[in-house]
Design brief:
With 172 residues, this protein is of the alpha/beta class. It has a single domain, classed as 2-Layer Sandwich (Nucleotidyltransferase, domain 5), CATH 3.30.420.10. The protein is built from 5 helices and 7 strands, in the order E-E-E-E-E-H-E-H-E-H-H-H. A 5-stranded mixed β-sheet has the order 3-2-1-6-7. Strands 4-5 form a two-stranded antiparallel sheet. Helix 1 runs parallel beside helix 2, helix 3 packs across helix 5 and helix 4 crosses helix 5. The radius of gyration is 16 Å and the shape is globular. The protein starts with a strand and ends with a helix. The mean pLDDT is 92.
Amino acid sequence: MRIYAGIDPGLQGGIVAITEKGQMKSWKMPITKAGIDANGLFKLFGGLKTKAEVIIIIEDVHSIFGVSASANFTFGFVCGAIEAIVIAHELRFIKVAPKTWQKELWISSDIQYKPLKEGKTKASVDTKQTSQLTAKRLFPTFDFRGTERSKKDHDGIIDAALLAEYGRRKNI
């Protein structure tokens, strides 16, 4: 059996595992007050590895324009830690650019636009809203909240689910 684990990196990221048969489980990115919980992440991947062949699909992201150098450094550190833990477990992984998985999974009826800004002639796609609609269409019964007490869906879990589904569809 194969498990496809999608990872939306970052401290507010998420991890979703999907089996070949479509069974799903999600986790918020394990963190501590100091940052990423590397031990927690290591244990999570170790637990998955004992159950099946695990293929990791990591969103291939880069520095974020308009964000402080410190925040970008932290984001890069988290991405590096995730990759190092995956490699330490000797798990197969790929990195997928957001536009690649979005093109594969989004359909025209999912696409939502941000309000048109003054002076602009073309509205930009609201990627969070579009991904949420896509995830709800593909997995209508799955709970995308970060915890049972959460009122809103967790963006990191939504993107992680879509990354895992991308891997499953492509049979990576």
